[in-house]
Structure formats: structure tokens, C-alpha cells
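Please predict the structure of the following assembly.
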Amino acid sequence: QVQLVQSGAEVKKPGASVKVSCKASGYTFTSYDINWVRQATGQGLEWMGWMNPNSGNTGYAQKFQGRVTITRNTSISTAYMELSSLRSEDTAVYYCARGTYDSSGYQYYFDYWGQGTLVTVSS
Amino acid sequence: DIQMTQSPSSLSASVGDRVTITCRASQSISTYLNWYQQKPGKAPKLLIYGASSLQSGVPSRFSGSGSGTDFTLTISSLQPEDFATYYCQQSYSTPWTFGQGTKVEIK
């Protein structure tokens, strides 16, 4: 079965960086995009960026441009999201989610999600 | 960026009720609209994609409709396990954006 398993909770100081991993299993890692979505406590969902694990191509939300980097290691079917220059407002649960196209090739959606990684930014 | 606005932000309903949640896009997105359910402490779960296509394994009491800018998610007969927060998300253009969520609570 398809699974995305994320790394554990992190506590970081303001100005530091954090790198969250997302290990995929149960499907061909290079055949589907990986997206990153975050959620502050009690708040809604915010998309950060995506990566095509086959090509390594990435795209980021303008809000995070210059601070976020999504990478992968295809040999271990793992994607990574690194966020730098952390501030208190970055405290949130970070999710990876598989991006899938339907059979028509037009509709795109997130069909599997990781369990989430809590990143706390505090001095 | 395309703004997604859900209404209501929260609602109270009883088991067996018919529930409708609305999502409006700031511009036309055809049928590039997905719905997710999220329970406390859990990751979101895909319910509906392409505005009206039911994801595999999702109960048929969930349905979606709409196109252009106005969309609805309907739960035909609310079950105890349906109490959760629901999000719409547009997949018309990046950045992918979500509605602010609708919390469905027990009356």
C-alpha cells in the first residue's frame, strides 16, 4: 500500500533551518510529484511547493521563494523539504503529499499524505 | 493567486442531516476543484477530485458539484465519523490554494 512516512518533530531557534524528510513506499517514487503543505495550529492548509522526483524539477509558492528548497534521493525514495531563516510564524505541521493526475491527465490532486511533522520555532 | 472562499466557516448538524458546504473561487477554474476531509491531529484525506469525481473508497454519501467559480460538497446523510473540517482546493493553476475550511460539528 502507498505510504508516505515523514521524519519526527523538530524544535529550532529563529534564524535556523529545518529539513524534513518524506519516505515513499508502495509505488514508483519517480512516477508522481511530491508536494509540501503546511498548517499552523488551528489554521488552514498552505501549499509551499512541489517537485517532480523523476526530473528534479521544482516549483515554489512566491511566499516561500528563496527560503524553501525541495530535493530528493531517488535511491531511497525520499523527498526533502528544507526551510531556512526560520521565524516564529513558521511553527506549523508540515505535510508531504503525493500529487496525482487522473486518467484524463487533466485533474490534479493530492491522493496520499504523510502523517505530518511538527516544526516548532522558538528561542 | 486564486482565492478560495468557503461558507459557512462552521456548522452544527445532527446525524442523518443533509449537509452542504460551498466553495467559491476568485476566478473561473472550470472543474479543477478538490475536496478534502481532515480530522483533528490527522492528515487531510481526499474525498472528491475534478469537482464531482468520488475518490476510491470514499462513501457515496459524499458528492460534489459545480464548475466555473461556484462549487458544493454535499453529505447526504451525516454520519458520526463525518464530523471533521472540510477544505476545498483549486488545481487550476499554481500556487495551489485552499479554502479556509468548514468545521462540521455535532448539534
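The CA atoms of residues 33 and 51 of chain B lie 5 Å apart. Chain B has a mean pLDDT of 97.
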